[in-house]
Amino acid sequence: MLEVVDLRSGYGRIEVLRGVSLEVRAGEVVALIGSNGAGKTTLLRALSGVQPITGGEIRLLGARIDALAPHRRVERGLTQSPEGRQVFGPLSVEDNLRLGAYMRRDKEIGADRDQVYAMFPALAEKRRIAAGSLSGGQQQMLAIGRALMGRPKLLLLDEPSLGLSPLLVDQILAAIVALRGRGITVLLVEQNAAAALEIADRGYVLETGRIISTGPGAALLSDPAVKAAYLGAD
Amino acid sequence: MSEFVQFLMSGLTVGAVYALVALGFTLVYTASDVVNFAQGEFVMLGGMVTVFMAALGVPLPVAALIAVAAAVCVGLLLYWLAIAPSRGASPVTLIIITIGASILLRGAAQVLFDKQFHKLPSFSGDVPVNLLGAAVQPQSFWVIGGTALIVLLLYLFMERTVLGKALRATAANRLAARLVGINTTTVMTLAFGGSAAIGAIGGILVTPITLTSYDVGTLLALKGFAAAMLGGMGNPLGAVMGGILLGLLESFGAGYLSSTYKDGIAFVVILVVLVAMPQGLFGRRSVERV
Asked: To pair with A37 at 20 to 30 A between CA atoms, which of A58, B74, B101, B220?
C-alpha cells in the first residue's frame, strides 16, 4: 500500500526526518509512536504533500507520489485527519463532511455521509452546527469523518486521542478497529503508545527523525526499551 | 424629510460602491490573507474601459462586458505574475506588491487612456425620480440594485456551492483545506478574478453619476479598505454594512455639517469605532474550542 524510502524533510536548515523508511501493507493498522518532536507529524504532512521533502521516495500502491500536489494524492486515495483536528470552524458539520469529499464527483457522497453519521451519532445530532463550537471529542470525530469522506485507501490519523477523556479515546480506537474491518488501511500516529500498539498490527518507533525499532504491536509493547521510553513502565 | 431622503439616497448610492470595493478586499483577504490595494484600480478599469469601448462605437452593454473581462484578466495577471510567485512572503511585502501594482495600473491607464474625466450615459435616462419629495437620479437605483444583486449572488455562491464552501474552508483553515484536496491556487485565482469583476461592475454602475478618470481608484481603495475594516476584515456581510455605513456617514456629514469635511467626518468615525472595537463592527468573535 505505502512504501516510504529514506525520506528526508526539515524546516530551513533543521532536518527533522533523517532518512525514514517504512512500509504499510494493505489492510493493516500500523502505529507510529515516538515522543514529542520525533518528527511524527512532519512525516504525515510530508506523506500528504503539505510539507516539502528534501529527499527520498513515497510510493502509494506502487506508484511514486512524492512529486504530486496534495490534491492529487487525495485523488489517489490518501487522506489525513491532522493533528489538532483542524476542522473548518465557521462551517457546519455537514459542510465539513461534504468538503472531505471535495475531490469526488460520484453520486454516493450522501450515502457515505450517512455512514459517518452512523459511526459517530453525536455528529448527526449537530449536523447544522458550526464545527468550531463542537466539543474536542466531537471535533476529533468530525476530522476523522471528514478524512473518511475522501474514500481513502490509506488513512493517516495524527494523534486522534490527543486531549480526549479516556472514554472518548476508547470510542475513537474502536472506530479505528472498525475501519480495518471495512478494508481501510490505517497509519496511526500516537503519543499514547500503549493504546496505539494495542490495536495495531505492527508498529514503528520514531526517534529524532529515524526509525529505531519496528515489529508487531504486541512485541513492541513488551520490548523493554520501548516500555522504558514510551510506556512509562520500569 | 425630503432633505433627509435626499441624503439617504445619495449615501446609499456612494455606500453601495464602497461596499463593492470592500467586498473585493474581503474576498481576496479571506482566500489568501492578502490585502489587495489594487482593488480600486479594478473599479477604475470598469469605468474607463467601458467609456473608451463605447467611444469606439461598441454598444454599451457589450462595452461593459468587455470592461469586466478586461478587469478580470488584470486581476488574474496580478495574481499569477505578482502574488503567486511571492508565496510565503510576509503580509507587509504582499501589501507593498499590491500598492506597486496599483501605481503601475494607474500609470498604464494614464498612458493608454488619458487624464480627462469621462462620463457614461445613465442607463435609464436622467429624469430624476421623485421619492418622498427628494429628487433621485435613476442611476442611483441601478447602483443600489446592482450591488444588492451582486451581494445576493455572492452569498448564494459562498453558502450553497461546493466551490464557495471550499473558499470559506480555505479561509478558515488552509492546511485542512489542502488535506481534503482543495487546490488553494484555484481558490486564490477565483478570489482575484471575482474581486476584479465585482470592482469593475461597481465602476461601470457608478460612472454615470460620479464620472471616472485614471486615478479614481486611489481614493476608492482607501474608502473601500476603511469600509472593510469598519465591518470587520474578512467578513463579507460586514464589508457590505461597512461600505453602506461609510457612504451614509459621508452623505449626512456633508449635508448636515459641512461638505468640506465629509471625508474627515467619515474617517474620524472609523477611527473611533476601531479604537473602541478593533475587530470592527461585525468582526467574528472567536468561538473555536481547542
From this structure: A58
